[in-house]
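User: tokens in, sequence out, please.
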């Protein structure tokens, strides 16, 4: 499923709902959870700098049960973290 991004201040962005759909596609091993490595690979694949650090920070911010991965119940927290980190109210900038 392709997710159409919007251009916000010259950068690609997506809505919170689009982000939640996209984040589920990062589950490479199909275990229903997003690991730090899967998140870091996504940041790197989108041209992001400091991918390892950002992946670790994203997991730490949303991992409410402390198991080191993001599961279905924690995706909303990861989306909120990404939105806050991007600095935009209605979009998450990639």
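Assistant: Sequence out:
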């Amino acid at each position: 499923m392709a997710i159409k991004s919007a251009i916000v201040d010259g950068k690609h962005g997506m809505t919170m709902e689009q982000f939640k759909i996209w984040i589920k596609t990062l589950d490479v091993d199909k275990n229903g959870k997003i690991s730090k490595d899967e998140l870091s690979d996504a940041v790197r694949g989108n041209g992001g700098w400091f991918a390892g650090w950002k992946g670790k920070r994203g997991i730490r911010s949303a991992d409410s049960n402390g198991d080191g991965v993001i599961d279905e119940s924690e995706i909303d927290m990861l989306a909120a973290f990404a939105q806050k980190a991007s600095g935009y109210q209605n979009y998450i900038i990639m």
